[in-house]
Write a structure and sequence with these properties.
The protein has 121 residues and is an all-alpha fold. The protein has one domain. Helix content is 64%, strand content 0%. It is built from six helices and no strands.
């Protein structure tokens, strides 16, 4: 569940408030990279599930045209990832996250499960 670890911050998450400070190592670049990776993993997982559910050839690629059709759903996944990684980055340093991604994955899954971060759209 590495994708949960990679759930990230898009700058659109807003300004930090008291108690919102990120742990050491979470630079804007690290958060952006993590967000993009998380989003891509979620998109690919959703695409695989869709193909299986609809009986589509499992080898069918996710083309740029299909991505364009799915743009609103992908944008929602990106926001979810941004929120969840930001929450994880408040709890774990970047080095801790890199050392034990399963702990961060579990934390991020819990954040999503509790509704702190939600899939909107």
């Amino acid at each position: 569940m590495r994708r949960a670890l990679i759930l990230a911050l898009s700058i659109a998450c807003g300004t930090a408030h008291s108690g919102d400070e990120l742990k050491a190592g979470w630079t804007p670049e690290a958060l952006s990279t993590a967000s993009a990776a998380c989003t891509e993993e979620l998109v690919q997982g959703a695409w695989s599930n869709t193909k299986r559910e609809q009986g589509v050839n499992a080898d069918k690629p996710l083309t740029p045209e299909i991505r364009e059709q799915l743009a609103p759903q992908i944008a929602a996944m990106k926001k979810l990832c941004a929120c969840a990684v930001r929450e994880g980055a408040k709890r774990y340093t970047k080095a801790e996250a890199d050392r034990s991604p399963k702990d961060l994955d579990k934390f991020v899954a819990d954040v999503i499960g509790r509704g702190v971060c939600k899939l909107e759209g």
